[in-house]
Amino acid sequence: MKSVKQDFIKEMLACLQFCIKGISAHTDPLVLLES
Length: 35
What we know:
Blueprint: H1 2-26, H2 29-34
């Protein structure tokens, strides 16, 4: 169970990093925070 949870967390972090890279590639992160 524990290893499965760790793998799930790793997948989520990888997805978040991918999403952040995709967003930052199109818009400035500061603009998103201010809006």
